[in-house]
Amino acid sequence: MSAPGTALLSRPPATDGSGRSLVAQLVLALVCGGYAVGAALGWGSQTLALVMGDFGLCAAGVLAAVSCYHYARTNRSRERPAWLLFAFSSLMGACGNAVWGWYEVVLGQDVPQPSAADFAFLCFAPPAIVGLLVLAKRPVTRAGWVCLALDSWLIGGSLLTLSWSLALAHATQTAQSGAPGSVPHAALSLAYPLLDIALVSMVLVLHFRRSPGNRSAVNTAIAALALTVLSDALFTSPLLRANYESGQLLDAGWFAGSLLLAYAPWGARRFASQGPEGSGQPRGQRPVSRPITGSLPALTPYLAAAVCTLGILYNVDGRKVDRMVVLTGCTVVLALVVRQGIMLLDNIALTQELAQKENHFRSLVQGSSDVIMIAAPTGTLRYVSPAAAGVYGRDAEELVGSQLSDLIHPDDLGRVVHEVRRFLAAPPAEEPTTRIECRFKSGSGEWLNVESTVNRHQGGLILNSRDVTERVRLQAQLQHSAEHDPLTDLPNRALFTRRVRQALAGRRAGDHSTAVLFIDLDGFKAVNDSIGHQAGDELLVEAARRLQDSVRAGDTAARLGGDEFAALILGDGGRDRSAREYQVREIAERLRATLSQPYRIGGGEVRVAASIGVAFADPGITPSDLMRNADLAMYRAKAGGKDRVELYAPQMQAEVVRKAEVAGRLRSALHDGEFALLHQPVVCLSTGEITAVAAQARWRSAQGILFTPAEFLRVAEHSEGGPASDRVTGADRSPAPDRSPGPAGAGVDRTGDIGRWLLEEAVEQAADRRHAGHDVPVAVRMTAQRLLDKAVPPGSVEALLTRHGLPSGALLLELALCDPRVPFDDLERRLTALRRLGVRIALDGFGSGYAAISALRRLPVDVLKLDRGLVEGVVESARLHKITAGLLRIANDLGMQSVADGVDLPEQVMALRAMGCSHGQGQAFSGPLDEYRLRRALARSTFPVPGGAAQPALAGGSLGGSMAIRRGSNNETPVPPT
């Protein structure tokens, strides 16, 4: 057998927990040996010999009785009556020896014949015989009971024949002589051997028919009773009985028998704890019995018949044959014939039943689609079912005789050996079977994935095997699908995170060279919107291919979702951080250049850029922190102009934390009602009449400071548009210009709660003012992204106006265009619907926003609002003067009203009026006013219009005179340091 095959089925050495039992057995042997030595030497005196021969045997009997009785009380199994009967039997023997001691030791006279001791000894055998019957394995059929009785008579009759021939005939003749007292004496002489013969018969029968439940106890009890019967047989011998005296060597047999019976139940309890059958090893691992041992029960009747024949031959030799011998011999022969006939019929029935079961199980095995194999303890295959041809592609005859280890893949053999050894060492009751998966060699040389259920079988194994190759392949496909992106087949976020974790776990201390790159495609949403999502998918597949081809072998490229990709760049173990940063930056720049090259999609070229953030694995960093750092660096790259590479710096995280804190304060302020609504009048430059009011939001902090839109909206913009948001929208993340935009300024599209509050509050207050007699339209600034947001239903503005009872013409929406990817078709439809409702539309920030000419050409605009940047230098700069004048002529030619934002000086009022600008708002007239001051201004309805000197109306009055007029500033409260 090969070495792997030996290792496969070799059992680990069984543990032996019988240390205490060996000590108990050694003590038992020493006590019995000491008694035998004392008896052989005569105990040193006649008196001591009598005491030890009588009361010593009495003490041993009492000990056996107490031991068996105590065990019967603590053990509630079906064997309890047997141990109670053994206790009574031992007590009777102890009583008989006590009577002998009373006469010989106490009274100093011979024991009379017969005496009470004889009756006590006669009561020893019957309880022991009944107890042995209780311990016997009960037959399950009537024929079994008959065979048990016949076996008992065969043994008993044979022993009776032999005993009668040797000694009992002489005792019978003595009783027939008519001498006084001879009949009772002869009856006792016959009773002893007859009961011993019955007891020996039961001992021999039980030796081969003992119950498998507790063999150790039965074996020990049989040995004890056999030793007692042997001593009785020697005592009844005429030669020994004539010269017997108490304390002789013969008493050592009775003494040892009593001690063995006392030890039997407790030795049985110890062995029962070691195995189900009292052995030190599990049933499935017990060595196979030798054939001769299994044949002894069948040979017992014939051995008994041989003993009977010897008795008959002894009588025939030159003497007259005794009738008792003839009668007993005939009954023995008759019992043997009857038993043989019963066994013959029983064998015929068993043979037929066995043939039926064999055919049944053979058909099951041969018809099964699973392969059933039986491996010998040496690892050799003894049997292989015919299903092997269909499963393994090899004939069953070809596999029989081969080594099981030769069929298993070398990479799986060690694991299989370990599992088999563990299984064989486990108790069968706790683990009857086990399951093993490994690869088997097929007839074509391929390795099949096989699942086997393994059972024990005569020291070897039974393997029920099936081909699970397709299931393993399906599991592998499912595992691959769960860990890879379905579009690009790159690792997904889960697998990428696990590989980052593995890379960090395998890093040496101080190794900073492992890096993570986060990649975002700039302009990808425009591709989806312009040429369709299918083209966008083709672009993502091509980008994934480029990324996979650009990373090194061993590195990992992944798609995290949308147009976000990532790359894990494994380190080389170097400690030079600057050199490693230079190397990784080169890799990142190469990836950026590769991903930014034109893509051939649908027969045309498409261009996108790549913003890449890089983070290095510092000591003690976690995978989530490393990926977050790379994400922050990528966000900084997009905020810095896109199409660039940015390395992570600790201040990035600090900035994010600060913005998150401020954004949290902002959300809390909105929830706690800390926002206030101010309005800045829009004045006719020719008459000074207030024609509208522009709603603006302010946040009043806990310190009483009012934060302007340019301040708190910038915080909201950066907090909502950070790394965790959807960057596919491509919204501009640059800070809003320093101006006083309407409440829906740049970035408010990501602060829907603020925009919604702003619109509802402005409409509600406008309705209140209207009811108070101030019928002035209100202007609310809103970004195009917010206007097109699907979360804002098309009828929400109409519902709001209806709820508050405000006419639609009293609402002016100032549209801010800050995203070049805003779909003009959708925006045009949305504005047209609002215009049809009666809402007026103003194009805010004209002169600085995106696609101003396209907006004028396509969108339904009523009012053109000049950007603050065009107003601030209109007096000083002749070039800017011409640009502003040209824009105003365009508005006039299109029939639009014009509003100049940021009119702070009288010179600007006169210059704009001369250019044809009709309206303006700014500090030249009034700053933002609270509701009380606004109603006072509306009550006057006009502001002084500068004609020559620069004298702005209500200068600074809007905020209690605290705002001085400064050139080039919106004079708003600065943001306090955070």
Automatic annotation (TrEMBL):
It comes from Streptomyces bambusae. The chain crosses the membrane at residues 21-43, 49-71, 83-103, 115-136, 143-166, 186-206, 218-240, 292-314, 326-345. Keywords: Membrane, Transmembrane, Transmembrane helix. This is EAL domain-containing protein. Residues 659-942 form the EAL domain. Residues 357-427 form the PAS domain. Residues 512-650 form the GGDEF domain. CDD domains: EAL, GGDEF, PAS. It holds the Pfam family EAL. The keyword Nucleotide-binding does not apply. Residues 719-750 are annotated as: Disordered. NCBIfam families: GGDEF, sensory_box.
